[in-house]
Amino acid sequence: MTLVLDNTTFESPVPGRFAGPDAALVTGLEHLRSGRGDAAIATLKEAIASDPGAIAAVRGLSAAYLAARRPADARGAVAGFVAANAMNESAWKLAAQLEWKLGDRAAAIALLRRGLERLPQSEAVNRLLALFLAATGQLEAASAHVNQPNASPATLRLRALCELAGAQRSTFLPDEIWSDSDASADAQISGTSSESAGDYLDRLAQSPRLIDALLRLPCDAAPLSRQMLAELEKRIERLVSAQPAHADRQVALARLRLRMNDHAGALAAADAAVGANPRLPDAHRARAEALAAGGDVEKAIGILTGLQKTGLAWPDIETEIRHWQTLRPRAIAQQRRSEAA
Q1: What is the separation, in whole angstroms, between the first and last Cα of the chain?
Q2: What per-residue confidence (pLDDT) applies to 17?
């Protein structure tokens, strides 16, 4: 069983695995998962008292307060953690994400700016600030925070979004930008290996997340050849034919075909992903991406707006909507030209 707060997943504990200070954290998260709010709050407070630096406990406590409709207490818990851990970039990120979740976007941005006063070289804080700025339409200001040397692929992807806003192509942002998991994917993408190219493509095809990380890079950061993309497509198609209900792979296939400018094929794969798992946000986002790339910007915006109405107030979704809204006049003009012809 899992609990998801924004993009953070709390996994079910293994019985008997934890003891001592960790026991309160695990028990508190289990109370939170089971809907025992008061017990979760009390136990997670104990966990924080035992280990004031336990960000998982603070995150869980803020989630419990939010579930109990106590936003002031959630803010208080996180603010106390930030005050005691001002040199911890994860503390500033957590505080900003909480404010964003509560709808105070100005406060979220202000918190990240304060964090950068302490940690000016933090790529994670710069990246999140750029994401929030881009989501509120401040693309020029956002681009100033994604120009660090040796930037990770997640940062390169965000930089590409800022630079390409208004261009006649669809651009994407990953949900993973909220996490710190890019390093492992970066190593797998760029690291050297003695295995053959065919073996590497087979391994790549089996990992939708790795495919997504690779495809979301700007073209200049990942100059993938048409032949390589075609070979990768064949391997994913074989896996999908064996497991047609594997929605994540259908999404990966859709985005791969988008990179190959196969809009119809991308839409077919995205439709299959939605059919396999209608509750998977990425399946609907892939469908929106395929529709927008094919010129149907209105339907794409409608899909993303629908996701927002279900509670997915992710900043990257809003950024995509804003981007496609800038494309709307061009798409309408193009459609009229086609009809006139």
Answers
A1: 56
A2: 39
